[in-house]
């Protein structure tokens, strides 16, 4: 017979702060989340609850009840990472485990409980282990996944167990909300006097489905075991990491590089075997006197070459100062992506240029920050100052701008000014025959135009037409001039400059 354990973490966001030993947990503290355009309370400490703070309250209402209330917004990313870490931890209970996001786990414990001395001792072991990790939990064990879910959340104790074959009788006393159905359905059931799961037994499933929907009858059938609802496990992600602990601290740069070489070789060998690459590597170095130092490097494309990892880590490692050395090292490959082998091309000039470009982006990004190394990409917009966008160079593959023929009228200058600069007309004309720009006089030698662009009809901020002219000056520079046609005294601007 199948036996399922459901583990519920009712205070998982607060457990994040408990693991940091945050002193605010001893007082009036709550976690908030934006719900329907308002920050509302989702979790709180017992002190805040005693002061009148309730789940679902808006921030102004909670502060009115408890002026000394301290809050933090829900960190969904870190909470999700903690849940996945607990999912990997649950492998010690059963290899058949699955996530019940956002705050629970399922485990098929059939044939596993006897290893702990029975289901009661197994549940106690899980609760004690979680308590040691500062994680609050409730456990339910039953024949079905839905029944275990209901016990974990609506049971009489932190560890509720239904004996095999007794699911129907024990679920009868639980409220209908224990079926994990929508609030609208719960309200409708209560209005008709159906408050517990046992109240549903005397009604035909066809009648319940016709009035309250199929979801109610499906959840009831799953809870009672009339419909299969197995635990669907998912394999945990492979972690590419290596650790080295030394009996005595080291501080020489050559020794640090030797340790880093062994760690990177171990990780990159596994990455290459699995045809995976990492865009980021994180190195944690522990010093006896200063604690942990974290160093990060990134790559423009997924990397599994230990030589490239050593090269990018050389500069940040040299910048570290160890007074008493370091005795523990851990290297982790992050942001993993599949790697496809690229076929060599005869000549190889283009491929070599691409590799040099990626190497340049990686080196500049690690020294300056990847958010500061940017690239211009074309954008589908007819106005020249909006026809390009700035993105992080590491986030896109090397791509060029669309090519135009030599006689194409859409040829644009090498440099386009986002804000055209006004020039001073010395000899009028269309375009001016002589003008001053940046305190230098220029005389027209030849020109081509106009190219007229209409404003976006959906924007009312600037509804003027534009005329653009390409002008070659006698002094050598070639400019892209702009004016607004139809004005009494047309002003001229430098909109761009060719090479």
CATH overall fold name of the domain at 1-9 and 86-236: Alpha-Beta Plaits
The strands making up the biggest β-sheet line up spatially as: 15-21-20-19-18-17-16
Cα Rg: 33 Å
Largest sheet: 7 strands, antiparallel
Overall body shape = extended
Number of DSSP E strands: 21
DSSP helix count?
Answer: 13
Through-space gap between termini: 79 Å
In short:
The chain has 499 residues and is of the alpha+beta class.
Notes on the protein architecture:
This protein has 499 residues and is of the alpha+beta class. Among the domains are: 1-9 and 86-236, Alpha-Beta Plaits; 241-338, Dna Ligase, domain 1 (2-Layer Sandwich); 415-497, no CATH class. The chain is 29% helix and 29% strand. A seven-stranded antiparallel beta sheet has the order 15-21-20-19-18-17-16, with no helix packed on it. A five-stranded mixed beta sheet has the order 5-6-1-7-8. Strands 9-12-10-11 form a four-stranded antiparallel beta sheet. Mean pLDDT is 86; it is low at 404-409.
Helix-strand layout with pairing:
Layout: E1 4-8, H1 12-19, E2 29-34, E3 39-44, H2 46-50, H3 59-65, E4 70-73, H4 76-89, E5 97-100, E6 104-108, H5 119-132, E7 138-142, H6 145-154, E8 159-161, H7 167-171, H8 183-191, H9 205-212, H10 214-224, E9 241-250, H11 253-273, E10 276-287, E11 291-303, H12 306-319, E12 326-338, H13 349-368, E13 374-378, E14 388-392, E15 415-422, E16 424-427, E17 434-437, E18 440-453, E19 466-473, E20 478-483, E21 492-497
Parallel strand pairs: 2-4, 7-8
Antiparallel strand pairs: 1-6, 1-7, 2-3, 5-6, 9-12, 10-11, 10-12, 13-14, 15-21, 16-17, 17-18, 18-19, 19-20, 20-21
Helix pairs in contact: 6-10, 9-10, 11-12
């Amino acid at each position: 017979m199948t036996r399922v354990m459901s583990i519920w973490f009712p205070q998982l966001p607060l457990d994040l702060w408990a693991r940091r030993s945050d002193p605010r947990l001893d007082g009036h503290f709550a976690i908030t989340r934006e719900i329907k355009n308002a920050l509302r309370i989702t979790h709180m400490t017992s002190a805040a609850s005693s002061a009148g703070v309730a789940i679902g309250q808006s921030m102004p209402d909670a502060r009115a009840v408890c002026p000394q209330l301290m809050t933090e917004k829900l960190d969904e990313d870190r909470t999700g990472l903690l849940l996945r870490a607990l999912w990997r931890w649950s492998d010690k209970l059963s290899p058949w485990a699955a996530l019940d996001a956002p705050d629970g786990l399922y485990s098929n414990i059939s044939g596993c409980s006897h290893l702990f001395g029975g289901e009661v001792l197994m549940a106690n072991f899980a609760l004690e282990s979680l308590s040691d990790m500062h994680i609050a939990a409730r456990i339910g064990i039953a024949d079905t996944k839905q029944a275990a879910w209901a016990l974990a959340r609506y049971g009489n104790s932190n560890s509720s167990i239904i004996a095999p074959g007794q699911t129907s009788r024990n679920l009868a006393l639980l409220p209908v909300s224990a079926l994990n159905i929508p609030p609208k359905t719960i309200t409708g059931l209560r209005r008709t006097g159906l408050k517990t799961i046992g109240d549903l037994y005397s009604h035909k499933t066809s009648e319940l489905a016709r009035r309250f929907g199929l979801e109610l009858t499906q959840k009831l059938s799953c809870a009672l075991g009339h419909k299969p609802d197995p635990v669907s496990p998912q394999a945990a992600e492979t972690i590419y990491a290596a650790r080295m602990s030394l009996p005595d601290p080291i501080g020489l740069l050559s020794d640090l590089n030797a340790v880093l070489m062994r760690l990177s070789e171990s990780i990159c060998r596994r990455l290459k075997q699995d045809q995976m690459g990492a865009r980021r590597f994180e190195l944690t170095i522990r010093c006896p006197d200063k604690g942990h130092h974290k160093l990060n490097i990134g790559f423009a494309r997924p990397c599994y070459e230990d030589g490239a990892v050593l090269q990018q880590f050389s500069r940040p490692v040299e910048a570290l100062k160890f007074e008493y050395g370091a005795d523990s090292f851990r290297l982790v490959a992050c942001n993993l992506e599949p790697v496809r082998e690229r076929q060599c091309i005869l000549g190889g000039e283009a491929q070599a240029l691409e590799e040099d470009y990626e190497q340049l982006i990686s080196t500049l990004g690690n020294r300056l920050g990847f958010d500061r190394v940017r690239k211009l990409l074309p954008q589908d917009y007819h106005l020249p100052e909006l026809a390009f966008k700035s993105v992080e160079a590491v986030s896109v593959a090397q791509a060029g701008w669309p090519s135009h023929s030599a006689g194409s009228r859409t040829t644009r200058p090498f440099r386009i000014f986002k804000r055209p600069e006004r020039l001073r007309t010395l000899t009028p004309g269309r375009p001016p025959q002589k003008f001053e720009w940046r305190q230098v006089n220029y005389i027209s030698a030849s020109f081509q135009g106009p190219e007229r662009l209409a404003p976006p009809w959906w924007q009312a901020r600037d509804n003027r037409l534009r005329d653009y002219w390409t002008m070659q000056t006698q002094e050598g520079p070639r400019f892209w001039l702009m004016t607004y046609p139809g004005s009494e005294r047309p002003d001229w601007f430098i909109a761009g400059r060719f090479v």
